[in-house]
Amino acid sequence: MKHLLLSLMLCTTAYCVYSQNGDLSTKSNEDKDDKPKPHFAGLDVGMGTLLLDHPSDYPYWNVTDLNLSSFGFNFMEYKLPIVKQYLGLTTGLGFNLNSIKMGQFDVVHTSTIPGGKNDTLFAVQNTVQNYRSNTFSYGTLSVPLMIEICSKKETKKSFYLDAGVVGYWCMYGTWQTRGKYMNGDRFYNRVTSQFQLAPFGAYATARLGFDHYGLFANYNLSPLFKKNATSIIYPLTFGISLNLDY
To answer: 14 is in which domain, residue-wise?
Structure first.
């Protein structure tokens, strides 16, 4: 009889522990699923232009009307709900690569003021060598702070609208040229430097969409380059976004 009672007690205890653990696990999963989904993590692909004063004095920053291309990978996101799933604060972390078409201009980066000019970063036209590709690129690490309005807590079949500010750290700059010499040999040249890029900056952003697809527009609130390096330049970009859930 004692052995039977002991066995029943052990079985009851094991069942209670199992039930409690199961409830906790289910509750944890439910809590995780109940959290509203942000709309930042994913891929951004866009194009744009550089806005500056007296553009005719800086033809190398305006070789085409849409001379700026942008690719972004936003790999972290978090949403702090304010009014259930309908209103919240969204933040995260992302990497952006931006490329400026330079046409037939060679970038000149000097620590001294050349020829009485005020700029330490400028470009001169190359009349000898034709480039197949000539780009000035810079990479940034960005952190957004946006007010988000959406129709559902899940990304699927949800309308959303984000607006706010994105702060960024400019990690590096590169100037890359590709082409072919007159003797037929191909070349690829790459120079990596900070190129007088402002180390920190911010831009205003607006994002809207439905389900996993959306549109975005960004406008720099701070100049792209340091003071007196070149013209005061404000990038403007717009494009499409693909939101990812993970």
So the answer is: 1-34
Q: What's the pTM?
A: 0.82
Residues 163 and 220 in one domain: yes
Q: Are residues 103 and 133 in the same domain?
A: yes
The CA distance from 133 to 82, in Å, is: 48
Looking at the fold, whether 24 and 53 belong to one and the same domain comes out as: no
**Residue carrying the six token digits 């699923």:** 33
d(CA 91, CA 144): 5
Residue with tokens 């037939």, as numbered in its chain: 104
pLDDT tens figures, 123-170:
999 999 899 999 999 999 999 999 999 988 787 888 999 999 999 999
Provide the residue count of the chain.
246
Indicate the DSSP class of residue 37. Answer: P
Output the six-digit token pair for 9: 């007690």
